[in-house]
Design brief:
The complex is a heterodimer of chains A (271) and B (262).
Chain A: H1 13-37, H2 40-63, H3 76-110, H4 116-138, H5 143-179, H6 185-201, H7 203-208, H8 223-232, H9 234-258
Helix pairs in contact in A: 2-3, 3-4, 4-5, 6-8, 8-9
Chain B: H1 6-27, H2 38-53, E1 57-62, H3 68-86, E2 91-95, H4 98-114, E3 126-128, H5 133-147, E4 151-157, H6 162-171, E5 175-179, H7 186-192, E6 195-197, H8 201-210, H9 213-245
Parallel strand pairs in B: 1-2, 1-4, 2-3, 4-5, 5-6
The chains are: A mainly alpha (271), B alpha/beta (262).
């Protein structure tokens, strides 16, 4: 810590939190200043070098065999540090996300646009949740702060998330209704396959073909076995074919990004 | 953390060599053919529809942070934002990650500037909603309903919220083009979206839209890499079948063990 020597051992937790924040700003400011000092025509090369070195650590770590006892090689220890550095870079952008929210909701509120009360609700929710979080962190032994935070998080945020998730069930029905209409040979095939798979997953499916033998050739035609076969043979083959295509595509893109060959894909102008 | 064995290292080296070789080969000015991908061709149609209707478009770059699928989504965003700027159509980009938000804003701003209309870029249309999955989904659903979007593009990593977004887009009557490398979400997009980009088509999008030699070469390299993998799989099928019929050949046909981990 840059500011660690200013803080006495045993100082309250909030002072340490302020210290970490100051370190964060000092380090971030220094890196930003250094980047600004680099001439424009060298910045592209600098970005390419940093990207290559960061990617190289992960590649070499993966390809160099690990110690048979520990499973680690000489670079394994660095992976966590690189991940931490990535998290620090990410943390810088968090403020920008908050800024975006404040800008959007603040403008709507200030101009009293239609639905401004929703923008007000955002600010209330933001500050109440933030204060509850800090209160809980600063008074870890207080049951009241813990209960307040839990009431807000488990009782509100988590419950709202679960409510939103439950809508998926209704959407599956409406989407399935459209998908399973018999419009073409492919749609008919899909309807038949889906019908068999669904029947095979519920007790009535097993009941319908209960008369067939449990073993031997006849057992292959029991609905639960047909359902299992559809899921694990044709479906799995298609799944793996798609997965291979995706992974090879991801490998190519990772290579282009790592070697900075992806230029021009995102911006018209150069750095 | 897992480490590669020698077989995987050599195989990976071969795939990397093939992709890089075709990239540098294409950069020398070779003409490469790329088949028509209906989902990607539909992007221009969807942009045109929004322009004709005078209603905005929405682009969802998925839930992930700055991962490979998100980078690919941002490359597609560049193309769509350029078309939006060209036809003076509004594009709304709700994000679930603050880093992606920052880059999406720059990509869109740059696309408007490149089309010579930087004054039409509205920074408020690039929004960070929430990094919580369903808070983000409800935010996007709200935008879809309030703004009555004409075209909805969903590219990137999607999870359980995919159907919520796609079905809402369908309900508001938007033309929807979607693509994701998340295999479990592809059926939802096929069901609810008008055009879906499947599998490696997702990573072919930037090459298809930009026709950059580097990207086209990479695509050709991917095809060669897939051919190598298909050959290994076929050889594996033949070997496994022979071993099932004649187990005594096990000592001669033990190459399948090379791919075992450890």
């Amino acid at each position: 810590m840059f500011t660690g020597w200013l803080i006495r051992p045993g100082a309250p937790q909030w002072i340490w939190a302020v210290g970490v924040l100051c370190d964060f700003l000092i380090f971030g400011g220094a890196v930003f200043l250094l980047l600004q000092l680099v001439p424009v025509h060298y910045r592209k090369a600098l970005v390419a070098i940093v990207t290559f070195l960061a990617g190289l650590i992960y590649s070499v770590e993966f390809f160099v065999p690990g110690d048979p006892k520990t499973g680690k090689n000489f670079l394994t220890g660095f992976i966590e540090q690189v991940a931490d550095a990535t998290n620090v870079v990410y943390a810088f952008a968090l403020g920008l996300g908050v800024y975006s929210l404040f800008r959007f909701h603040g403008k709507n509120l200030a101009r009293k646009r239609q639905g401004w009360h929703n923008n007000l609700a955002f600010f209330v929710a933001f500050f109440v949740m933030m204060l509850a979080g800090f209160w809980q962190d600063l008074t870890p032994s207080s049951a009241m702060s813990k209960n307040t935070f839990n009431m807000l998080f488990d009782g509100t945020v988590a419950a709202l998330g679960a409510a939103m998730f439950s809508i998926v069930g209704f959407f599956i029905v409406s989407a399935a209704y459209r998908a399973f209409r018999i419009r073409s040979a492919e749609a008919t095939l899909m309807l038949a396959a889906a019908f068999v798979v669904m029947l095979g997953q519920v007790p009535i499916g097993a009941y319908i073909t209960n008369g067939l033998p449990a073993a031997g050739l006849g057992s292959l035609f029991r609905l639960e076995n047909v359902s299992y076969w559809i899921l694990n043979e044709p479906n799995m083959a298609a799944w793996r074919a798609i997965a291979f295509g995706i992974e090879v595509g991801a490998l190519a893109m990772a290579l282009r990004t790592w070697l900075s060959l992806e230029r021009g894909s995102f911006f018209e102008r150069e750095l | 953390m897992n480490h590669a064995n020698w077989t995987v290292a050599i195989l990976e080296g071969v795939l990397v060599f093939l992709i890089l070789y075709k990239i540098f080969w294409a950069r020398r000015g070779k003409d490469l053919y790329i088949r028509k991908i209906p989902g990607l061709s539909a992007i221009d149609e969807a942009v045109g529809r929004a322009a004709e209707m005078g209603r905005p478009m929405l682009f969802c770059p998925g839930l992930s942070g700055l991962s490979l699928p998100t980078l690919q989504a941002l490359a597609i965003l560049k193309h769509i934002a350029s078309a939006a700027a060209k036809y003076r159509t509004r594009i709304i980009v709700p994000t679930a990650d603050s880093v992606v938000y920052t880059i999406a804003e720059e990509v869109t701003k740059d696309a408007y500037a490149a089309q010579g209309v930087p004054e039409h870029f509205n920074p408020e249309d690039i929004r960070f909603l929430s990094d919580d999955q369903f808070a983000y989904a409800s935010g996007v659903v709200g935008i879809l309903n309030r703004e009555k979007v004409a075209s909805n593009f969903m590219f990137g990593n999607f999870f359980a919220e995919s159907l919520i977004l796609a079905e809402t887009g369908h309900q508001v009557g938007a033309v929807q083009v979607a693509g994701t490398p998340e295999i479990t979400q592809i059926p939802f997009f096929i069901t609810a979206a008008d055009y879906t980009i499947i599998g490696d088509e997702f990573y072919a999008a930037s090459a298809y839209l930009s026709r950059e030699p580097t990207l086209l070469g990479s695509l050709a390299g991917q095809d060669y890499a897939k051919a190598v993998l298909v050959f290994i799989m076929l050889a594996g099928v033949v070997t496994a079948t022979l071993l099932a019929v004649h187990p005594s050949l096990g000592e001669w046909l033990n190459w399948l063990k090379w791919f075992s981990p450890g």
